[in-house]
Amino acid sequence: MSGNAPSRSVSEKFKFMKALDGRTLLHALSFQAPKIRLLRSLLIEGSPAMQVLDFAVLPEPEYDLPIFCANFFTTASLSIVVLDLNPLHDVVIQKDYKDKYYRKLLPLGQKYVELLPWGDKLTSESLRFFSPIVIWTKFSTDHHKHQVLYSAFKDYFEAWLELLEQAIKENDESLIHQNREAQHKYLTWRAEKDPGHPLLKRLVGESLAREVVRQFLFEGVDSLGVKSFLDYFPEYRCDDGTINQKRSVIGKSYGVRPWNDNGEFIGNDPT
Length: 271
Hints:
The protein has helices at residues 12-15, 95-102, 106-113, 124-127, 143-166, 173-193, 197-204, 206-217, 229-232, and strands at residues 7-8, 16-18, 25-33, 36-45, 50-59, 67-75, 78-86, 122-123, 135-140, 253-254. The strands form 2 sheets. Strands 1, 2, 3, 4, 5, 6, 7 and 9 form an 8-stranded antiparallel β-sheet that branches. Strands 8-10 form a two-stranded antiparallel ribbon. The N and C termini lie far apart (42 Å). By secondary structure, it is α+β, with helices and mostly antiparallel strands. It has one domain: 3-Layer(aba) Sandwich (oxygen-dependent coproporphyrinogen oxidase), CATH 3.40.1500.20. It is globular and about 50 Å long.
């Protein structure tokens, strides 16, 4: 990356945490750099049978760059993976945004479609935050697959860094506001509905897990905007005004990859 050296900034309480079981360790790192509002990584090392990596890079609001996202969960028998350049804006509705960032990356996505095939049914609520090149996969844990995954991680991160290098700072305040709100919406969804939350609660307790989620993993949810989860996602409002705790309330899911080779969304008839 060009520019000044990255600066390190993470609360002391999150740098190193020992789980309630006395064995599992959690290591957190975060950085800031030119064009990057937050780069953060959480590594969870349990028994040899369980490891987790939650890695993300979020741009400054002056850039409409995608959000780099890598979530890897591995046990002795199963690996669950999400790897993507999460779009900041809707790639189905805003074709210009999709073309700007993903048209040239479609061959990269196709490279891994067969090596790391679609994992399972995915809810439409989650899908709205994924791009046409998303890797969503599950596989029986083995060394070869992990090598493929590591290769995919490097390729995707290098692609994101190239986009970062080319990114031009936005000066239009209205567009900066749109970028900031889009990132806040993303963080608000993840802070409330991320599937890794139950694991964190089991490991460190509900109170500390909430702090890790809101002050570290999805830092910015309490500062980038003022809208609530229900402002963004009113379909989750219960009759008593609370948030529906279900992962999906729309009821649609996609059991096969809902994009074609040209990056066009073909999932209007979900299975």
